[in-house]
Amino acid sequence: MRRILLALIFIAPIGGCIDRPEPPRQPPSRTSNRPLPTPQLRQCLSQLSANRAIFTDVADRFYGNGCATVGTVKLAALNTDNATVTVTNLGPVTCGVATPFAAWARYGVDRAAHQILGSRVVRIETFGSYSCRNVAGTSRRSGHATANAIDVAAFVLGDGRRISVLDDWSNGTPAERRFLRVVHDSACKRFGTTLGPGYNEAHANHFHLEADGADFCR
Ligand SMILES: [Zn+2]
Predict the structure, then answer these.
(1) Could you tell me the distance, in angstroms and rounded to a whole number, from the CA of residue 211 to the centre of ligand 1?
(2) Chain segment 21-70, per-residue pLDDT in tens
(3) N or C: which terminus of the chain carries fewer CB neighbours within 10 A?
């Protein structure tokens, strides 16, 4: 009897995850059923390549209720001046947000880490992009509902240090706090909306980076 109970426990699905899991996707392919890219998307993809991102196309998907992933890519890695940066936990993102993200990783994050902390960035940890939801406390769809925003949680350096927004924005060493403020400010120059711990409690553990054409930096 006990053995049967144990077996049941092990085959029970693991549920209760707070974040909506990424929907299953077809493997990215250039020969997907996506219509030919618009000239605007083509230009964006070529800019993304110029920014040294390694990526694949993702077929367009529509989830209803204003939620969709259109013109998105899957970032495999970003190349900085002389290293490769991996990006964790990130599903499809619009080309429009991937492009400034690649440039920010190289010119903003990596160079700031080198100058302020004496080590290159090797990994950027995220809380993901696509999520069919509203801006908290409003009836307006979030940039995450169209994969047009990325939530960045932490940076891992070549020397093994991990600088996280949650732990180090207020409580890091002076250099770590300065690094986080510099990369936040450089994000403001590249993204329409940049939100961090200074904005509200909901952003205490990440930077929200969105390519919405707004000019909002907090
Ligand atoms: Zn966000």
Answers:
(1) 11
(2) 444 444 444 444 556 788 999 999 999 999 999 999 999 999 999 999 99
(3) N
- Kindly list the distances between the CA atom of residue 159 and the CA atoms of 76, 113, 140, in Å, as whole numbers in the listed order: 22, 11, 42
How many whole angstroms separate alpha carbon 197 and alpha carbon 189? 17
How many Å lie between the centroid of ligand 1 and the Cα of residue 64? Answer: 20
- State the alpha helices, DSSP H only, in the chain: 2-11, 39-50, 95-103, 111-112, 165-168, 174-190
Predicted confidence (pLDDT) per residue in 77-109, tens digit: 999 888 899 999 999 999 999 999 999 999 999
CA of 142 to the centre of ligand 1 (A): 8
Q: Alpha-carbon distance 49 to 46, whole Å? A: 5
Cβ < 5 A residues, ion ligand 1: 149, 151, 208
Q: Residue 128 Cα, ligand 1 centroid: separation in angstroms?
A: 8
